[in-house]
Amino acid sequence: MPELPEVETTVSGLRSVLEGELIVHAEPRRADLRWPIPPDLRQRLTGARIETLGRRAKYGLIYTDRQDVMIFHLGMSGRWRVDPVEIEKHDHFILETASGRVVALNDHRRFGSLDITDSDKLDAYRFFATMGPEPLSDAFDASVLQKALHGRKAPIKAMLLNQNIVAGLGNIYVCEALHMAGIDPISPASSISKPRLSRLVVAIKEVLTAAIAAGGSTLRDFAAPDGALGYFAKDWRVYGRAGEPCGCGATILRRVDSGRSTFYCPKCQR
Fold first, then answer.
1. One of 3, 6, 21, 176 is an active-site residue; which one?
2. What pLDDT, on a 0 to 100 scale, did the predictor assign at position 234?
3. What digits encode the pLDDT tens for the residues 216-264?
4. Quick check: is 260 catalytic?
5. 2 is catalytic
6. Which of 189-196's residues contact partners 24+ apart within 8 Å by CB, and which partners?
């Protein structure tokens, strides 16, 4: 599933195509993806001008001059295609602008979503209301993380994947950040000292920033709107590298926790 850097890459690509554009055609080509598509989506978008694009956690945001925000999630296999030569079977939503640009949301597994809400109600949106701070924002620091983890005995990895603790982190980048910070993924969250949490916060920000700069990771289905794949995967420290040597010389291990693969170094991470 595309994680925060992949969504940020997608939004950046769409911004260069859509920002400031007038929407002349908005066409949901089916009634639902993972959830029903709002029946008034076409009406609210057609004739609106796109003011800017943004991201919240793993969701992309398209703001219009009607004080609406279209919210999209790429699910497992979703991607936006820019100026496609032809519309394909799995292009489930089409957006066309007055300048002739076309973007199509392609999602053959249909685990993605499309929604729309008033911009002044965005913080109260059903998936955002209890969401934690953005990991790349100034609102996310060791003090905030320590407070959120107080009394939590669950493993630190599980807590970092909890969107109510911090928004947008996924399995790949949590594995990478925990390795960079030297923290065992199964350490009880509340047992980690503030100095170690400070190193963890720095690692999270550094890993995400590097992944965004590289255009995300080359996942099985992910591609940016221009069709380019991300290249951060070549810099993975532990993820997907079970049986290979860590930089310290020990062997990277893989464990399954709650259905997710955890990659870690038994020597570096304590």
1. 3
2. 65
3. 654 444 455 665 544 456 678 999 999 999 999 999 999 998 889 999 9
4. yes
5. yes
6. 189/149, 189/152, 189/153, 189/154, 189/155, 189/156, 189/158, 189/159, 190/149, 190/150, 190/151, 190/152, 190/153, 192/149, 192/156, 194/142, 194/143, 194/146
